[in-house]
Amino acid sequence: SIERAAKQFRCSPEAIWEKEKQILHSFKSRAFQFIQSPPNDNNFIEWLALIQHYGGLTRLLDFTESFYIASYFAMEAGGANDACVWAINDNLILSKIGQKVEIKMDKDKYYPAYLEGIRHSAESFIQSPDEKQDLVLRVIPSRLNERLAVQKGLFLFPCNLEKSFEKNLCSTFDFQFDTLDSDNSEKLKTQDIDDDTVRIMRVMKINLSREWHCRAIIDLGFVQK
């Protein structure tokens, strides 16, 4: 959302990092009035997750580990048009992250050490404007707010605010292009896709036809335990 706002208000790419710092400072200075247990001062990913939760501008992009949750929100917002779900290969993005940044493991933490290491790497890009890399990290706060927990949420985190999210993502997967559009894609039908295809796919755009929406939303909205 901070990238979209920068374009809307003609903020230069070079100034976005400073705007992010201003947003963080402003939110943190008031949060104690409303949040019972705020994060530690330097836990920037958790702070950004809270700002995102309350509708503020951040570099974070919401994702979920559940295809059903993603489909529900895509179709609910689709209106009279087809909807789509963007899917990122989880194993491959973690592999690429490991190749491109040094992940410092903290085995004393109470959740998987590599997640903590990735979070620390992401926070280094927030702290210093000189830390720039065309890369997207998969980040999860160490503490989940209610929305993230219920929706099995996580975030994709672009490391270079001077470049678009798409440019960061394309560089992460070593694509030879900077945008995700139909000219750069391979079009597949359902019958063309098998487990081997899915394993090597890096980014998928899954179209959900408008004719399915009504029945699918009813099914997804009334799932029983």
Lay out the secondary structure.
Blueprint: H1 2-8, H2 16-31, H3 44-53, E1 61-64, H4 67-76, E2 83-88, H5 90-100, H6 113-127, E3 136-139, H7 146-150, E4 153-158, H8 165-172, H9 195-200, E5 203-208, H10 213-221
Antiparallel strand pairs: 1-4, 2-5, 3-4
Measured on Cα atoms, how large is the radius of gyration?
Answer: 18 Å
Largest sheet data: 3 strands, antiparallel
Query: Strand sequence of the main sheet, in spatial order?
Result: 1-4-3
Number of strands: 5
Q: Residue-averaged pLDDT, rounded? A: 89
Task: Quickly count the helices.
Answer: 10
Strand residues, percent:
5-15%
State the low-pLDDT regions, or none.
none
Global geometry: globular
Task: Tell me the helix content.
Answer: 40-55%
| Sheet/helix structural class | alpha+beta
Topology as a string of helices (H) and strands (E): HHHEHEHHEHEHHEH
End-to-end Cα distance: 34 Å
Description:
This protein is α+β, with helices and mostly antiparallel strands. The protein is 43% helix and 12% strand. The chain has helices at 2-8, 16-31, 44-53, 67-76, 90-100, 113-127, 146-150, 165-172, 195-200, 213-221, and strands at residues 61-64, 83-88, 136-139, 153-158, 203-208. The strands form 2 sheets. It has a 3-stranded antiparallel sheet with strand order 1-4-3. A two-stranded antiparallel sheet has the order 2-5. The longest helix has 16 residues, at 16-31. The protein is built from 10 helices and 5 strands; from the N terminus they run αααβαβααβαβααβα.
